[in-house]
Amino acid sequence: MAVVLVLQARGLGDLLTAVPALRALRRARPNDHIVLAAPHRLKPIVDLIASVDAMVPTGELSAFRWDGPPPELAVNLHGPSAESIVTLTKTDPGRILTYRNAAFPDLEGPEWQPDIHDVERWCHLLESDGIVADRRNLGLVPPVSTTSHRDCVVVHIGAGAVARRWPPDRFAAVVRHLLVLGREVVLTGDEIERDIALNVAARASLPTRRVLAGEQNLIELAATVAEAELVISGDTGVAHLATAFGTRTVQMFGPTPPRWGGPPPHLLGRHAVLWAGQVGDPDADTPDPGLLRIGATEVINAVDKQLTKRTWPGTGTDRRRATYRRVG
User: Fold this and answer.
1) Burial class (CB in 10 A: 0-12, 13-18, 19+), 267
2) What is the Cα–Cα distance from 252 to 206, expressed in whole angstroms?
3) Cα–Cα distances in Å, from 31 out to 4, 43, 71?
4) Of 60, 104, 97, which is closest to residue 82 (Cα–Cα)?
5) Which of 88, 104, 112, 242 could share a disulfide with 231, CB 3.0–4.6 Å?
6) Closest CA to 236 of 137, 151, 133, 161
7) Pair type for strands 153-156 and 54-57
8) Is 50 exceeded by the pLDDT of residue 188?
9) Counting beta carbons within 10 angstroms of the beta carbon of residue 7, is it exposed (0 to 12), middle (13 to 18) or buried (19 or more)?
């Protein structure tokens, strides 16, 4: 049995944008043993994708270890960096499928295009090798959880980088508005962000029991997102989860534009995306100035519209396309 090794050692959102590419690879090579090198914490979501046979836990490229036979094919869904290509080269693969890097002139591949959506990026890479990929194949089957928060509004206060963190006082203003509307609200985030979530809850007079940040594992968080009536978040992996489960969202973008990693525009009427229209530094140690131009009032207005949308009978969706709203 031939082995196909796929490298995608990044976060939750990055993994979810690679779902159509992973499924295309599975369809193209149904009898091969597909191994994904990715962070171990993402395994519950990898299992939901149902296109991978095994995982090699890889949080950092420097930590990657390969003990299996040389892969027949190594696929680089990590990025065009020399480090990622070297990592795959060390497995002695029969062939590497990657975006081109000038440091490896013998490796063919398409040129890296920075200004395209990540879903398009990985599908395009496979298509350059003759593998047809369906960009719409993003959906996941909701997981089963022992606890339920059905029809709540999920307010995800976290972000993987400081530049993408919307201020806690603005989240609190949105939560207060939701409580006035009589909505059930839960705050999510990871264990590092629990103090931020508790601060938001205190500002909004939300009971501490509604703070789920730091208390859920990944599959419980995924189930909460899947059951929610609405998810409010920044540019995070949780927003990608909501897209995968068909849950409505309000998303605040910055410093990177939604055309790079927001909900794909073909999705029908599930998402309101707010963006100030300026690209910033994703590695900044302070919140992005463009993100800060998005005020609580703009988010509350978008939330109200999302909560009052009606679905067309028998479809579960409405006819409005994903909304990218420029703020300011």
Assistant:
1) middle
2) 22
3) 10, 21, 14
4) 104
5) 242
6) 161
7) unpaired
8) yes
9) buried
pTM: 0.92
29 neighbors 4 (Cβ within 8 angstroms): yes
Give the span between the Cα atoms of 316 and 128, in whole angstroms: 35
The answer to whether residues 248 and 308 touch, using CB atoms and an 8 Å cutoff, is no
The string of pLDDT tens digits covering residues 203-212 is 999 999 999 9
CB 234 within 8 A of CB 164: yes
pLDDT per residue over 242-296, tens digit each? 999 999 999 999 999 999 999 987 775 789 999 999 999 999 999 999 999 999 9
**Contact (Cβ atoms closer than 8 angstroms) between residue 49 and residue 26:** no
- In single-letter form, the type of residue at position 211 comes to V
Q: Determine contact, residues 231/247, Cβ cutoff 8 Å.
A: yes
The rounded mean pLDDT for the chain is 93
- pLDDT for the residue numbered 311: 44
Q: Which among 325, 326, 324 has a CA at the least distance from the CA of 265?
A: 324
Given this model, what pLDDT does residue 317 score? 39
> Using one digit for the tens of pLDDT, what is the confidence trace for 296-326?
999 999 999 999 974 433 333 343 344 566 6
Angle of helix 296-308 relative to helix 168-180, nearest 10 degrees, comes to 40
Q: Can you say whether residue 107 is alpha, beta or left, with left for phi > 0 and alpha for psi between -120 and 50 degrees?
A: beta
- Count CB-CB contacts under 10 A for residue 72: 16
Both tokens assigned to 266: 């073909």
